[in-house]
Amino acid sequence: MIIKIELVKRIKEYFNLNIYETKVWLALLGKGVASAGEIAEISEVPRSRTYDVLESLEKQGFAITKIGKPVKYIAVKPTVIIEKLKSNTLRNANEKVKTLSELKNTKEYLELKNLYDTGIEPVKHRDISGAIKGKAGIYNHIKEVLENAQKQVIICTSVNEIKNKSRFFSFIFERLRKSDIKIKIALSGEENEIKKINNKFKIKAKKIDIDAKFYIADNEQVLFIISKENMPEEELAIWLNTSFFTSALSFLFEQAVK
């Protein structure tokens, strides 16, 4: 049995294993049931390390020790491993979210906030502009900008963006409605798709014939998306906090959707 190098590299990343663990697991999968010596021969992992690696795989749920002499190991089905890893990931993520949610109730958070608000040089939002890279970072900033609005938000984006981020926008629209914030939306795309989105989210988006994406809050802040969607990690946005420019952009938006 020959274990392909490319397969080892991919499986190593997918399952968060080290190189020896990956080779031993693949060898065990190929044999189904095998001794440490057999695994060492197939995987080309030094025999002196194979026992430790098999023990590590057993603890992680990738292998089971077969009762009897000599000691042999049984491979666990990949589907079982995937389901277990999914459950572990969700549990860890939920625990992390809970920890972060409770952080605001700690004295450490109050110290951080106090440092930000009253430090040696307090941050003045009116003086800030910046670039945000990566889709995840951009959406976090969109959420912050829109949720901090007091009176009105303007959203200009595409039908596809709303559809692809349905849960995100559903949450945003609901939060804005509950806060009694006026929402103005323009979407590029097919007329019938815009109607579907209006019905689904209970909004009144208008069609616009330019492929632009920006978000405005209270004519004070604007977030521009300035790159294409096809490479999420390289997506780039510019955030400006200036009423002079933002008010002018809001006026142009109003003229475009009349």
Can I get a quick summary?
This protein has 258 residues and is an alpha+beta fold.
Number of strands: 10
H/E order of the elements? HHEHHEEHHEHEHHEHEEEEH
CATH superfamily of the largest domain: Endonuclease Chain A
**Radius of gyration, in angstroms, nearest whole number:** 27 Å
State the shape: elongated
Low-confidence segments, given as residue ranges, are none
Q: What is the count of helical runs?
A: 11
| CATH topology descriptor of the largest domain | Endonuclease, Chain A
Provide the number of structural domains.
Answer: 2
Which bin fits the share of residues in helices? 40-55%
What does this structure look like?
By secondary structure, this protein is an alpha+beta fold. The protein has 2 domains: 5-79, Arc Repressor Mutant, subunit A, CATH 1.10.10.10; 128-257, 2-Layer Sandwich (Endonuclease, Chain A). The protein has helices spanning 5-15, 19-31, 36-43, 47-60, 78-102, 107-118, 135-147, 159-164, 166-178, 191-201, 243-257; strands at residues 33-35, 63-66, 72-75, 129-133, 152-158, 182-188, 206-207, 214-217, 221-225, 236-241. A 7-stranded mixed β-sheet has the order 4-10-9-8-5-6-7, with helices on both faces. The chain has a 3-stranded antiparallel β-sheet with strand order 1-3-2. Helix 1 packs across helix 2, helix 2 packs across helix 3 and helix 3 crosses helix 4 (47-60). The model has no long low-confidence stretch (mean pLDDT 86).
Main attributes of the structure:
elongated; 3-stranded antiparallel β-sheet; 55% helix; single chain; Arc Repressor Mutant, subunit A; 7-stranded mixed β-sheet; 11 helices; alpha+beta
